[in-house]
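A favour between colleagues. Tell me how you read the following sequence-structure pair.

===
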Amino acid sequence: MSAVLSTEKDPAAPVLHLAMLNKGESGIVTGLAEALDASQSVLRLRLLELGFAVGEKVRVMAESFPQRDPMAIRVGNSTFALRRREAALIYITRL
């Protein structure tokens, strides 16, 4: 997966994903990546169940040292540990 994608509405507009944020940064969920296989489909559903829905505010609370993986993400009133490959499935707009 590339670090910066483009949208169909505006091909020049970059699409960021949650894994690109650093500790202390926030964003708004704009969507989830399309599932490429059954395991990604299950993960995508689980992310939705956890609250990573369009319009939700997310914030990176902490990152593991030294490789920054996993990361602690706050969504709503809950904090979850996500691997960067999982966070890369969550598209955001940076705040």
About this structure: The helical segments are 38-50, 84-87. DSSP finds two helices and seven strands in the chain. The domain at 18-94 is CATH 2.30.30.90 (SH3 type barrels.). Residues 1-8 have pLDDT under 50 and may be disordered.
